[in-house]
């Protein structure tokens, strides 16, 4: 019994002395990806504004979060992904009956980030009262509206952490037919969304939903991208870039988010 007590004490001491990994820890990623993460973060730090980054390995559970991952930034068009999730699940429950026109509008939201399609569906299916109350259940627990702007899909503050949870909800929680549909759509986006996560390169088979706008009060740009890369969508990547740049802010943010994904994944997948 005494020996057991000594062993237990030793275990407790060892646990107490084990360092706790910081929020941005990369130790569960392989060495190559750890080095890529360090380069990507250094690049992000050298760029204008703030960039929230969340990288997740769905196979090992490893997660990297930048210091800005919890910073509230305008979501722009990324909530269109949550809208599609919500509509599909409401249709399953019988709460709504999606028409062929509705499904075409959903395709347009995901494919080219069509604002008119989003406006129509938001209004047709209940707006804030219906969509927003369920968005947190899809992972967007940080999201909020403000009194300065309409409570509308295009005026939601959110975080890279939220977008990480949202895309992982799509990949792990949705019925298979809905997951596969969204993955196909995100892998086949129009040219206007082929940046951000898309920078991983064709070999990574990326898919993404992007959002962009000069929504800041001073007219500076926000450039966001959330999606997945790798075999069986192994990795998810969420990027929110508050450029704080007015002139050429779109181009600046597009370059920042695309380069981060390129540093992380271009040439990483062999064969």
TrEMBL record:
<dbReference type="InterPro" id="IPR012338">
    <property type="entry name" value="Beta-lactam/transpept-like"/>
</dbReference>
<protein>
    <recommendedName>
        <fullName>Beta-lactamase class A catalytic domain-containing protein</fullName>
    </recommendedName>
</protein>
<dbReference type="InterPro" id="IPR045155">
    <property type="entry name" value="Beta-lactam_cat"/>
</dbReference>
<dbReference type="GO" id="GO:0046677">
    <property type="term" value="P:response to antibiotic"/>
</dbReference>
<keyword id="KW-0732">Signal</keyword>
<dbReference type="GO" id="GO:0030655">
    <property type="term" value="P:beta-lactam antibiotic catabolic process"/>
</dbReference>
<feature type="domain" description="Beta-lactamase class A catalytic">
    <location>
        <begin position="103"/>
        <end position="237"/>
    </location>
</feature>
<feature type="signal peptide">
    <location>
        <begin position="1"/>
        <end position="25"/>
    </location>
</feature>
<dbReference type="GO" id="GO:0008800">
    <property type="term" value="F:beta-lactamase activity"/>
</dbReference>
<dbReference type="InterPro" id="IPR000871">
    <property type="entry name" value="Beta-lactam_class-A"/>
</dbReference>
<dbReference type="Pfam" id="PF13354">
    <property type="entry name" value="Beta-lactamase2"/>
</dbReference>
């Amino acid at each position: 019994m005494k020996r057991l007590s000594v062993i237990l004490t030793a275990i407790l001491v060892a646990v107490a002395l084990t360092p706790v990994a910081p929020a941005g820890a990369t130790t569960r990623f392989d060495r190559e990806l750890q080095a890529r993460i360090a380069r990507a973060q250094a690049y992000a730090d050298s760029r204008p504004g703030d960039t929230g980054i969340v990288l997740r390995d769905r196979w090992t559970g490893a997660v990297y979060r930048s210091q800005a991952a919890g910073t509230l930034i305008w979501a722009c068009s990324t909530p269109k992904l949550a809208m599609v999730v919500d509509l599909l699940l409401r249709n399953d429950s019988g709460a709504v009956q999606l028409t062929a026109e509705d499904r075409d509008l959903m395709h347009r939201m995901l494919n080219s980030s069509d604002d008119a399609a989003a406006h129509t569906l938001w209004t047709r299916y209940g707006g804030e009262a219906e969509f927003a109350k369920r968005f947190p259940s899809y992972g967007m627990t940080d999201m909020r509206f403000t009194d300065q702007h309409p409570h509308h899909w295009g005026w939601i503050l959110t975080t890279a952490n939220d977008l990480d949870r949202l895309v992982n909800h799509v990949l792990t929680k949705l019925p298979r037919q809905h997951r596969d549909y969204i993955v196909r759509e995100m892998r086949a986006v129009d040219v206007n969304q082929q940046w951000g996560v898309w920078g991983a390169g064709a070999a990574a088979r990326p898919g993404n939903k992007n959002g962009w706008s000069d929504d800041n009060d001073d007219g500076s740009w926000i450039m966001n991208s959330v999606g997945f890369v790798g075999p069986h969508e192994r990795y998810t990547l969420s990027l929110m870039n508050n450029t704080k740049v007015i002139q050429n802010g779109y181009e600046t943010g597009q370059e920042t988010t695309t380069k981060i994904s390129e540093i992380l994944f271009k040439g990483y997948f062999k064969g």
